[in-house]
Protein 1
Amino acid sequence: MARNTETYVCQSCGNVTAKWAGRCEACGEWNTIELEASEAGPPGSLGAAPGKSKAKKIEFTSLAGASEDVPRVLTGNAEFDRACGGGLVPGSALLIGGDPGVGKSTLLLQVAAGLARGGASVAYISGEEATDQIRLRAKRLKAEDAPVNLASATALRDILATLKSEKPDAVIIDSIQTLWSDALPAAPGTVTQVRSCAQELVRYAKSTGAILLLVGHVTKDGQIAGPRVVEHMVDAVLYFESEQGRDFRILRAVKNRFGAAHEIGVFEMTGAGLAEVANPSALFLTGSEDAASGAAVFAGIEGTRPVLVEIQALVSPSSLAAPRRAVVGWDGARLSMLLAVLDARAGLDFGRHDVFLNVAGGLRIAEPAADLAAAAALCSSLFDAPLPQASVVFGEVALSGAVRPVNQAGARLKEAVKLGFSGALAPTGASDKSIEITEAGALADLVQWVRKAH
Ligand code: TYD
Ligand code: MG
């Protein structure tokens, strides 16, 4: 018998407690615990109901053996396919998260149209917008001719019943927070509802081989509401990000069971929907011909793709006892470390300067390979010496001041050549015949390279 009990659930992490508290003891968030009624108490232990259901013996197999490559369904949107790891896998569930207004519905409508044009049957179910609104958007995207099955619904029971009879190849739910299961007394959007609706839909996708695309809203502190509970249920989690006031959008895979995480797809929001940006390097380079001090071009890798991006630094004398350090697009702790290493190992004096570092175009860099490029921008600004023209920089800086080799040096150099760069400052060992490489084994080589250019 199901017991009706009331429990307190943290809306951020899903932790369940018996009592209300101001602060969740699991995730430490304040004011996130709310009363939710749960439909049943914990199930009895397996031994408690003898003979009720007979346990089956599970069969073990070996790691080796025939298994096919995962088939992929292409959406016709190359940037989206790339971010998903090379297309969508039947029977898999994806979560696409992002701020309101970033363009999730636009992207998924374009993806739906692409899939439908490719011959797949697609169901686009919106719980947020009326079908008329979506039709208007489709017109704007010039997608109204695509045979997409459109519906506006929020009741999970109706949605599942419809899907089971229609059997579409792909299902798009916009958004998971608007769905509502009448089997639960909790309100729509609560962790309990989000979790159980997602669970039911994922189970449906796995059992029928349908592709499931879920939209998830991000709360103001940057998390999908009830995020962790959904994130571990789905096969891939993609975040759709934008920089304030910018038109381009980055779709970033943070988890992918069928492909590389950290893969990105780049788009630009235009008057007619999201346009693919096939060559993102052009976006992250400011393209100014006159050399300014404090700017270095970093040859980075985002996912599996090389991307060139400009790193800008401004170093100015400070009268403050604790000079200011501000960083956009890079890790603040990493900047502090780099400044300390530059002071200690290269004899520079950043300690009495304010330091600002910015990654152009709003990209966020997490690679250690950016160390040397950031250091080059910092030195260039400190010496007020523009860096050698048409050069890229990459390499990891160790605490000893040594420059360490990084992965995929060849791909980085190739991208630089492709975009017309003629020089590179790179860790020892990197080679490419079409570009003039200055090898940096230690920070002293960097300082010499910056000074020489002056
Ligand atoms: P939307 O897809 O509704 O965002 P989300 O579903 O993530 O909340 O996108 C909304 C924004 O995109 C809105 O501010 C208008 C803009 N937009 C364009 O600039 N061009 C277009 O062609 C479309 C459809 C939307
Ligand atoms: Mg939307």
Protein 2
Amino acid sequence: MSMVLVTGGAGFIGANFVHYLRRERPEWTVINLDLLTYAGNPENLAALEGDPGHILTPGDIADRDLVASLFSRHPITKVVHFAAETHVDRSIMDPGVFVRTNVLGTYTLLEAARHAWQGVQGEEPRFLHISTDEVYGSLGPQDPPFTEKTPYAPNSPYAASKAGADFLVRSYFHTYQFPTLITNCSNNYGPFQFPEKLIPFVISQALEGKPVPIYGAGTNIRDWIFVEDHCRAVLLVLEKGRPGETYNLGGRQEKPNLELVRLLLRLLMEMRPDLGNLEELITFVPDRPGHDWRYALSIDKIEGELGWRPQVDLEEGLKRTLSWYLSHPEWLERVRSGAYRDYLQQQYGAAVV
Ligand code: NAD
Ligand code: DAU
């Protein structure tokens, strides 16, 4: 019987992970601490209503008293820390909240766990911090993929705030022998992803017959991983990873953005021929400032040490993602609120909204 604190478990990856954990480790109790920002959605957890093994606790990871009280009230022995501000474009508009949540929030959690776990007997505690490949910076076309030894070179306020959090986590292991683990993952996609990120945004725009904006020439490259593969790796690292270590996680599926969007639209047209020629919606718009050109990750370390590799290939993952969005129109309708439309207006201008 373990008690695990999951932060950010009402967001995209966090909610997928909570569902995965309830299936894979039903004997564990999950305390889900989430501020329910625009990206956090209790509807993502609706299937767990009445489940005594899942306790949704609305609240801020940067609220010291709240976090300390969770550790004093519950025998938490594991933390999986997803909570963060996560959208690069929003970090360019307003970096302050990224520093507060991603850096101060992570610090607050680390401190609460460090004090709570001092001298604990019994189950060995573990603190898994979920990070991103963006901390490593950007690659050129011929560069080898990032490894766990690649020096950090974050380029956006989002990436810099995640790098700051990673450094704090690292320092707690070295200074206090606090049992940390870090994973750095590539671009996720799948059910419950908020439609500001490329894949769900393209789906949402295409279903409404609205423009699909591509930054720059669409040549930037990302490595895509289906969220379920990520969840599997997170549980494996939590249970079997070596404290103090970092593990890169990726899908081994690099694609230039324009190619990815064309593939996604083709698959959508196959499923919904009534939508017409969706390629016509592609619209080139000014580039993201400081846009990282390419991310790619070596996953040799986790593959060699823990035997993990991604199982869902891109086309299959995109089909599963499309099926989910097509069968949850009410979810999509509700998240496309007034605040969402205001954000689109500010980011892209009237033509896209
Ligand atoms: P998301 O934006 O969908 O969800 C973030 C969640 O954190 C939301 O539920 C939000 O309400 C919550 N949150 C925000 N501020 C909070 C605060 N102060 N206190 C408590 N909760 C707060 O994010 P995501 O895409 O699911 O990403 C989850 C984690 O994975 C993040 O740490 C992100 O950096 C990392 N990551 C994401 C990707 C990706 O492709 N999405 C890739 C690699 C790593
Ligand atoms: O690499 C992991 C990261 O992936 C995570 O750490 C971040 O939390 C997550 O948001 C994601 O960051 P990206 O910036 O790569 O994802 P995004 O979906 O915003 O954009 C993917 C690519 O598509 C990127 O090159 C920018 C481009 N893009 C994005 C949007 C929203 C467009 O061309 N048009 C768009 O409208």
